[in-house]
Every structure is written in structure tokens, then in C-alpha cells.
Amino acid sequence: MTDDWRPTATLETLRERARLLAGVRAFFAARGVLEVETPVLGHGGSTEVHLASLSAEATTPAGRERLWLQTSPEFAMKRLLAAGSGPIFQLARSFRDGEVGRRHNLEFTLLEWYRPGLGLEALIEESAALVSSVLGREPGDETRPLRRRRYRELFREHLAIDPFSAPLAELRRLAGEVGGLGMADSDRDDCLDLLMSLAIEPRLGRDGLEVVVDYPASQAALARHHRDPEDGEWVASRFELYLEGLELANGYDELTDAAEQAARFEQDNTARRAMGLPEVDVDVRLLAALEHGMPEGSGVALGLDRLIQLALGKSSVAEVMAFATPHC
Amino acid sequence: MANYSTNEFKGGLKVMLDGDPCSIVENELVKPGKGQAFNRVKLRNLMTGRVLEHTFKSGDSLEAADVVELEMEYLYTDGDMWYFMKTDGSFEQYAVDKKALGDTEKWLKEQVPYTVTLWNDNVINVTPPNFIELEVVETDPGLKGDTAQGGTKPATLSSGAVVRVPLFINEGEVLKVDTRSGEYVSRA
């Protein structure tokens, strides 16, 4: 007799989870943000090289076709924005192949929302307010104020290196040393990601919510870019929220350029071919929507399971899910 | 031997790392949203017993280690080597050197089953049962009527181990001892 039919979360946790979800919906209702639901299966998928998509064979009026399980609801939500939806949010079940662990589950809930006409600063404030409300704290709690850190400043502080100007050889050496593995053929962003994940992230958000801004432009091709006031280096209009060493949310001042988006899809699939990875069908309807015109604005995706994990003081996402992947 | 990819790593899996057999203790996926995935893995080196942490790119693989754990009874020692026999009825014997035996040397008793770890059919580790019953061969005389009082004294057991025992224990008595902590549990 095995016990693995049982939920990975306690029933008490599931009740708490339901209460927190109701709180999220109330938060957005009070701010006039519309809840939407978009398809989990789409004709296009994410082409991102480091995201592995799952797909399914389906019979539709078009015959047998391959549909992609969405890695985030981004594309469909942007089509709604282009259609004039105004501000929208979604509690979206998302799927990423191979991502199972203490902080990951094959399918998970992204809380994603878009704010046409709103700048990145205002969205950072709103994201912090949402996190505080789920954690049961007052926004702007004076004892744990939102701390703002620049990407470059973090690397200087924790690793004594400038992530923008350090030579690639130096980044590879440091990443190899920190990770204890060969990074000799890794590119800049892979080295920076490893250093961020292993040496910096675990220390972030230990004293309340921390927001990291001014990422290298290469790490957010679809965010707007602006020049760093210090030295004129291009940085991305992107932010990430961290709490208790966990990456919680990723926000962008969204690029609305259809040609740029199309080029990025093509670039990704070229890189996929070169790496021997399967190509992913491009969301041509997103491109058409951008061509039509999407309002300027910002958007953010937040890992809701992780936030609930922190709110309830659990040590893994499995403990806040009815049936985590190993028991699904 | 087969290879295991990082996504197959789980607690207890035996793999080769830098020429030594290791047992995976913990495997944690580290992945920035859209960045490359890594696995932060804790492994116990089965030769040294040390736990080390190692990072792998997700999808990397390690060769499987031919490691098996078997139950064997202790037979005897000739002074250089210690001899154990499989309990599966095959009567197959294995010689164990001092290095592989390690601290288990002081918990040896004939006909008791031990967990023996083999790598490529060589013994690399011997683990005693959690509890073992051994005779006291040397201790100060017992104090009658002192059973309720605290206080302990050292006692040497037939296997050579020295443990702290209550004052009322006498030579010749058989004791139950916890081999993990080296502590007296009760009279057997």
C-alpha cells in the first residue's frame, strides 16, 4: 500500500490558499483590473531557448494539429490588450517542461497582469502592494520598506565585478569558480545568470521585499531600454522582485514593436536549431495583434505558488499544491 | 554502466564524480525565469564519507556507479583483514581492509549482520546495525542499590568499544548499545 495518492498540501493549507486567491481577486477588483482567462493550449508557443514547451496533438475543425501548452499567458493577454481590453489580470496555469524541484513544478500558477498606460515605477509599487497584501502586511510597512537595488550595484557588492564592463573571460572564470563547473563556452548572459542565481539571489529579500532594476539590455530584448544615468550603458526597463532568497516576479515596460518581436522569434528558433533543440511554432496571431497596435504600458508575471509558500511559511511549492508533479 | 542525466538525480542514486563513487543526497533545480537551468547537487563521497556540493548544467549527465549494499555476517579477522559472508545462502566471503572498515571495527561481533557497501565488487564501507548487544569485559565494580542515582562510568565491551554506562552495571553483563551515538541503551 502506498500513500502517494494523498495531497502534497495539507487540507488546512489548501483552505489558506483559497483564501489568499480570493484576496488576490479582491485586490484587482478594487483597482478596476479585469480578470481574464486565456487558452492553456495555443497554436504558438514560447520560442525562448531556455524554456522547454510541452505540446499536445489535438483534433480541431482544422484537422489534427499540434497545440502548445503555454509557458505563460503573455501572448494571449497581449492580444487582448491590442483588442482594447484595458488593464487585465489572470491566474494562469502555465507549463514548463523539466522544471521540477523545491521551487518549481511542471505546471504552476502565474499571476500575470498588464497595465496599459502605466510606467514601470508605478507597476513596481503595485506589485509590492500586491505582495504585501498576500503576505498580510500593510503596503509601505515602515518596518520592512521596499528596497531598490540596481543589477550592477549587486554584482559590485557581492562579487566585486562590473557585470557590464567585465571581459567575458573574467565572467567565465568567476562563474566557473562560483559554480564549480566548466563555463568556458558559456556566453555573457549564462555566466551572469549563474552568478545571480548562486551568489546573489540567495541573499536577496532577507530583510523584506527587494526589487532589482536596470538589467543588462541583452537580458530583456522585449523590454524598452534606457541609458544608465551613471555611464550611458544601455539597461533594460525591467524589474524583478525578491523575497527570502526567492525570485517572485518579473516585470517589463513592454515593447510593442511587431517587427522586433518577429525578429526575436526568428532569432530564438535559429538558436534552437543550432543547439539541437526542437523549434517552436511562432505565435503569428500575436505578431498580427502587435501590427494592429498594442497600447504602451507595463506588465508583470508573478509566481503565485512561491508567494503562497512564503505567506504560509512552507519550504517548497509542493506543500502549497494539491498534487505536486511527482504525485500528479 | 549507464549514465544519469541531472533530471534523474534523486536521493540515494549512486554516480561517479571525479573518479569516486558518490551517493546523491539532494538535487535542487536553480533556474532564473528565462535563463539557463542549473542543478545544485549535494553528494556524499562514498570513499571519504564527505558531503560536497556541486553545480551542473541541467541536462549534463554522470556515469552510474556500480555500487550495491548487501547484508553480510561478520566471521573473523586474521589481523590484517576482516572477513564477512553473504547472508543469501551463497556462503560467498569478502575480505575488508582497515580503511573500509573504519569506525565499525569497534562494533564487530561474530554472526551479526552488517550492511556492506560494494563498489565494483570491492568493499568500501561497512555499517553496523543501529543497535547491537555486547558483553562488558571491563568496568569498575557495580554499586548495589545505586540504580536510581545518576552518574556513569566507562565500560569496555567485547568488541573493544568503550561506552558510558550506569554505575550498577557489572562485568559479564550483556548491554544493548546504539552504534550511531555510541550510547548505552539498556541491559539486554
Automatic annotation (TrEMBL), chain A:
Example of a GO biological process term: lysyl-tRNA aminoacylation
Domain Aminoacyl-transfer RNA synthetases class-II family profile residue range list: 17-326
UniProt keyword Aminoacyl-tRNA synthetase present: yes
GO annotation, cellular component aspect: cytosol
Keyword Calcium: no
Alphabetical UniProt keywords: Aminoacyl-tRNA synthetase, ATP-binding, Ligase, Nucleotide-binding
NCBIfam families: genX, PRK09350.1
Subunit structure: Homodimer.
Protein name: Lysyl-tRNA synthetase class 2
UniProt source species: Halomonas ventosae
Automatic annotation (TrEMBL), chain B:
The gene coding this protein: efp
Organism expressing this protein natively: Halomonas ventosae
Gene Ontology process terms (BP): peptide biosynthetic process
Homology family: Belongs to the elongation factor P family.
Coiled-coil segments on the chain, per record: none
Name recorded for this polypeptide: Elongation factor P
Localization: Cytoplasm
Keyword terms, alphabetized: Cytoplasm, Elongation factor, Hydroxylation, Protein biosynthesis
PANTHER family assigned: ELONGATION FACTOR P, ELONGATION FACTOR P (EF-P) FAMILY PROTEIN
Processing after translation: May be beta-lysylated on the epsilon-amino group of Lys-34 by the combined action of EpmA and EpmB, and then hydroxylated on the C5 position of the same residue by EpmC (if this protein is present). Lysylation is critical for the stimulatory effect of EF-P on peptide-bond formation. The lysylation moiety may extend toward the peptidyltransferase center and stabilize the terminal 3-CCA end of the tRNA. Hydroxylation of the C5 position on Lys-34 may allow additional potential stabilizing hydrogen-bond interactions with the P-tRNA.
GO cellular component: cytosol
NCBIfam families membership: efp (TIGR00038), PRK00529.1 (NF001810)
Domain Translation elongation factor P/YeiP central: 69-124
Membrane-spanning parts: none
